Each structure stands twice: as structure tokens, then as C-alpha cells.
Amino acid sequence: MSLTVADVLALPGLESLTLRAGQTGLDNPVRWPYVAENSGIAEWVLGGELVFVTGINHPRDEANLLQLLEEACQRQVAGLVVLTGPTYIQAIPPRVLEAAAAAGMPLIEQPYSLKMVLVTQAIGSALIQSEQLGRSRHDVLERLLAGDYQSLDILLHRAAQLGMPLTGHWQVVQLQLEGSEALFAQGDAAQVEAHLTGRHDAIGRRLRQWSPTVPILGRAGQWTLLLPAPDAVAALANRNQLAQWLSPLNLRLAPLKLFIGLSAAAHPAARLAQAQDEARQALAAARRFRERAGLCVYDELGVLKLLSGVRDRALLDQFLKERLGPLLRHDLQHGPSLMPTLEAWFHENGNLMAAAQRLAVHRNTLTHRIQRIEALCGLTLDNAYDRLDIGIALMIWRLSA
After folding, report:
1. Between 94-103 and 62-74, two packed helices, what is the crossing angle to 10 degrees?
2. What are the domain boundaries of the chain?
3. What is the pLDDT of residues 226-236, one digit of tens each?
4. Domain 5-123 indexed as CATH 3.40.1390.20
5. Which residues contact 261 (CB under 8 A, 6 or more apart)?
6. Which of 90, 120, 224, 391 sits at a 20 to 30 Å CA gap from 303?
């Protein structure tokens, strides 16, 4: 659980703090208060700070305040607090207020009569309390998702005490952001790290809007959240909501890509560990099967449910080796051609013309490859049982890619 700008404004003793602009950023999490003493802040903040601006050590005219606002947006601080009074900064210029409103950056006015020591003490104490509460709530949820508890009733009672009612029916959602390697290969590591942090924070903020009472578990580009889903209708609404968000989001994220897996609906707290496992299986399918457009629900897995239930991975690997081993060895030596061809043929239900178009090759080339595939594997694509074996082997291959 994080302390937000809105929470800071509501703290006892800080009633004289006034939000002047940037109301859309009130949900920005506050990592720590920072008092700006230099002309700029870009090299002194890491993101998430609530920056207090005085005119004691440096004159703050309109141009400097606009500069600070621009740097605050670039470094993704939580908000700016400008101290005003008769001696240093008499008032916040209208252009600064307009710029803050346009940027969605919370701009707060603090009278000099409110002592900074009281402000920083109040925020520091609130941050510690928020961190302790957040850890407790995360611990409860992690235990439920792992099935790591002796008494479910005691754990649910603890959750209710922490303001986290979990007595309903839920759908577990797993998200994973991939592609950071491509970013690091293209640019400066520090800039890429800042870019990724911004992406992670933006995704986290959106997820918190969907789950205001239950914390989001997440680290290093992976998130887990619970969505209310008492029945299949609610689960479908959750799926549609996530799909509508995901498609345009991935266009903006490129070369990063976000994948989402959802469990089945109507899991009570006692079955959240099972729901978590379902969401993980769905996430694996979303990542490995492009036709799912980055999102998959456990109920959509079909035969993949059976494959996921095989705990001895060696059995699946052996099946893949027996059915498609010659193709895998061929592509390893000569470059990928036969496995993608077989996959395209299956995806197009044996339509040679459609498969050739999918692969951007001539139909004669595709026909030659199909003949080569049958010769190497000793299987016949016209045989229903051979097609079944090959289809299952292809799924195993995709899941292990």
C-alpha cells in the first residue's frame, strides 16, 4: 500500500496545504519528501518524491518555477509543493499553474507559517505506517495465493482487519512485461532503466484503479491482482476490459509487450492458490501462442490444460522428440523453416495457399517442405491420428520455446 499525494493532503496538521493545480495526479505515490535547494532538481531526484520548493537558497522567479515543473515531469516526481509568503515566493505565477494543470502534475501551495519540520515529520510517519500496512496486506495475500496457512478463517479475519475483505469470489490475473532486452540493446542503460520504471509505474497505477481494496503484487515487470468474478458473466467482463486496454497499450509500449493470463471465475479465498496456478498456465499460453493476442483465460486452454497437468516434464520432451525430433534437428542445423511451415499448415487447417501466404513463400516451396516434413518424421498429414500427435507435439514445442 503506497501513500499518495491525496493522502498527504488529508494528513492531520497539514490542512493549510492547498492543491492549486494537477488534480489528475492526486493518486501519484509519494516515495519521500525532498526539499529543493538548487536551481534545478533533475540530478537530485529519482522519481516519486514530493518536492518542496523554497526561495531561501535560490531565487524562484516564473522562469525557474517553470523549469522545476518541467524537470519534475521528466523525472516523474509525485508532486511539487511551493512555499509562499511575504519574504521569498509571494505567489505562484498563473503560467506555472496552467502548465501544471496541463501536465497533470500536482502543484500544492504551502504557507511559510506551516513549519517544514512538522510537514516532513507528518509525511515521514505516514510513509512508515503505510509501508507497514502494505507489507502486512501483501503478506496475507501472498499466503492465500500460495496456500500457505494453517487456518483460513484466521487469515481472512486478519485480511478484514487490514481493510482487505476477501470473502467473495475472485479471478486471479497474472501480467508480465517482456522485451526489456531489446531496449537495453538500443540505448543507454540509465535511460532505459528510467524508461522501464516509468512504464512499470504507469501499468501499476492502472491496475490499482481496478483493484482499489486488494493490493497488487508485483516486481520486475510482473504483477498479480484479484478481480471480483462471482460468475462467468463477470469473468467475461473482466476479460473484455483487459483486452480493450491491452491492445492499444502494446502499440505504445513497443518494443515492450505486456501479456495477461486469467484464471477461471468464481474462486473463493480457499481456492486462490488453484486460481493462481490457472492464471500462470493461461499466461504461458498468452506468451507462446501469438494468435491469442497477448491475453488468455484458463477456460480457453483446451488440451493445454492436460499438457499443463503433466508434472513430469521429461514425458512431454520425449513425446516432442519422438514426433518432431528430426524437424527440430533440421532447423537447428539449417535455420528455422520446417517447424514454422508445419505450424502454419496446422494454423490454416491444411490450406496450402493460405499457409504459403502466411509464410510469404511460393505454394510449390510449401508443398516441397510438407513432403520433406512427412519424409523426415515418418508421419502422414492426411492421417487423423498422425495429425493429432503432431498437433500436440506442436503445442509442447510452443510451450517450451
Report:
1. 10
2. 5-123, 169-301, 313-400
3. 999 999 999 99
4. yes
5. 173, 174, 175, 279, 280, 281, 282, 283, 284, 285, 286, 295, 296, 297, 298
6. 224
